[in-house]
Amino acid sequence: MADGTLTSSALTRAYLRRIAAVDPKVNAVLRTDPTALRQAAASDARHRRGTARGPLDGIPVLLKDNIDTRDLPTTAGSAALTGKPPRADAPLVTRLRAAGAVILGKTNLSEWANFRADKPTSGWSAVGGQTHNPYVLDRNPCGSSSGSAAALAASLAQVASGTETDGSIVCPAGMNGVVGHKPSLGLVDQAGVVPISAEQDTAGPLARNVTDAALTLAVLAGSRVPQAPSGREDLRGKRIGLWRLPELGPGVDALMTRTARTLRAAGAEVVEVTPPYQRRLAELEYPALLSEFHRDIDAYLATRDGPRDLAALNEFTRTHPAERTCFAGRELFERALAAPAAGSPEHRAVRAELKDLARRSVDETLAAHRLDALAAPANPPAWTTDCARGDNDVIPSSTPAAVAGYPSLALPAGFVGELPVGLLLTAGDRQDARLLSLGAAVEHRLPARRAPRYLPTTPVP
User: Fold this and answer.
1) Is residue 94 exposed (0-12), middle (13-18) or buried (19+ Cβ within 10 Å)?
2) Where do runs of H (alpha helix) occur along 115-182?
3) DSSP secondary structure string, 84-96?
4) Catalytic residues
5) 111-137 residues labelled b (16+ CB within 10 A) or e (exposed)
6) Is 197 helix (H, G, I), strand (E, B) or coil?
């Protein structure tokens, strides 16, 4: 674009053609924006005048369908929100438009960001149906930013925005062989995003490389992070703590061994660690989220046409036929309705202990071993999608950063058979720029991404 050999119009048309040709296999894109080519033409005019607004000017971006857009439906995957679009763009969308990005369309997601049933099927929503993993189509894309990650794996856009409460950016990134960054809590304005919990929710970028993720984060965050990695990052002298998580399977564990060997060969010091307090974090997280979801979803629904609160949403979901075509469960809705009120003494005590232990889990491990970052597998090999069984997704590596509000970054580490596995890097509060720089250096040494082959199936490892 800078030298005039590529226009935004040509790039946007190429992605629209690719969505038409490839997305029927993957089912990641819910809808494209009918104004995308007009947006691209406006960007081309700015480039010709020499008034381009920055590196995202003219770049096609997909948005997860729980991010408000004033001119496109925003449904969180539920038939309950298929009426009028939101009244205004989410602030992060306003920032993307101001940066000249082309809003290409909206992606499917796990309905209500996977906060509805005890045994959901990630990548499924009543509005969009089932998103498939582009590497092996009968395997799951992980949730809840499943459509955004699968779309990028299939090269249906340049970058995308996802959201995470715990694992919903970094697990889909790992399972679909792309990069996903969960920013520090509060770095990206969360207004206009369908919530689970204001104490953990954040939007963040997904991309096919760390530099694109960093450029996108700078726009989403209002340039409150430094510029993208330079490409000259070095691992020499870096100390990385490897949390192996062998329960994710022998294939993943062997990949972590190979990854550690590669990082050591590049000059990094890799020491094995086990962050403390994980069992207690697992006990406390859902009770806190249930109270916060009731508070925050009620506030959001009050801004939209449709059910006005969680009780009405629960009844809608119980009675609407489309909401039962994969699974019927509403257990989390019902527990949230019965949970202690957010702000009650019981809830405040749970959240205070949870946040304290999560921060100590990361901070104490980093300090005890003088680490630049923690590293862990981001995901197991993708499980077979099965509505009757639901997910097989106990993946603890995302929880410390998610609960603490600290940044984490998933990037491709390699494969178990035909299935991608990501490496998850975690650092301390507001260390997003340092984490992205470290991620770029790791990415340079682990050139692990390869294009998907859209295999119909593969043997179970």
Assistant:
1) middle
2) 146-153, 170-175
3) SPPSS--HHHHHH
4) 64, 144, 168
5) bbbbbbbeebbbbbbbbbbbbbbbbbb
6) coil
pLDDT 10s digits, 234-285: 999 999 999 999 999 999 999 999 999 999 999 999 999 999 999 999 999 9
Count Cβ atoms within 10 A of the Cβ of residue 341 and give its class: 0-12 exposed, 13-18 middle, 19 or more buried. exposed
Q: Which has the closest alpha carbon to 66: 95, 92, 104, 47?
A: 92
Alpha carbon distance 40, 232 (integer Å): 32
Q: What are 432's two structure tokens? A: 């997003």
The pair phi, psi for residue 285, each rounded to 5°, is: -65, -50
* 144: preceding bond cis by omega (within 30 degrees): yes
Backbone angles phi, psi at 10, to 5 degrees: -65, -40
Strands 373-377 and 124-125: unpaired
Whole-number Å distance between alpha carbons of 179 and 204: 11
Using one digit for the tens of pLDDT, what is the confidence trace for 300-320?
A: 999 999 999 999 999 999 999
What is the residue whose two structure tokens read 């104004």? 35
In this structure, the strands spanning 159-164 and 60-64 are: parallel
The half-sphere exposure of 37 on its side-chain side, counting CA atoms within 13 A, is 7
* Exposure b/e, 59-79, CB count within 10 A at least 16 = b: bbbbbbbbbbbeebbbbbbbb
Which residue in this structure is represented by tokens 């304290």?
Answer: 356
Residue 28 phi/psi, 5-degree rounding, is -100, -30
Interior angle at CA 332, CA 353 and CA 141, nearest 5: 95
Kindly list the distances between the CA atom of residue 17 and the CA atoms of 13, 22, 32, 438, in Å, as whole numbers in the listed order: 6, 9, 11, 35
Q: What pTM, to 2 d.p., does this model score? A: 0.97
β-pair partners for 61: 103, 159
Average pLDDT over residues 172-187: 98
User: Where does 120-223 have alpha helices with state H?
Assistant: 146-153, 170-175, 210-220
- CA 249 from centroid of its chain's CA atoms: 23
What's the pLDDT tens digit per position in 16-69?
999 999 999 999 999 999 999 999 999 999 999 999 999 999 999 999 999 999
Round to whole Å and give the CA distance between 245 and 400.
Answer: 14
Quote the pLDDT of residue 461.
Answer: 61
**Tell me, what's the pLDDT at 8?**
98
Distance (Å, whole) CA 368 – CA 355: 20
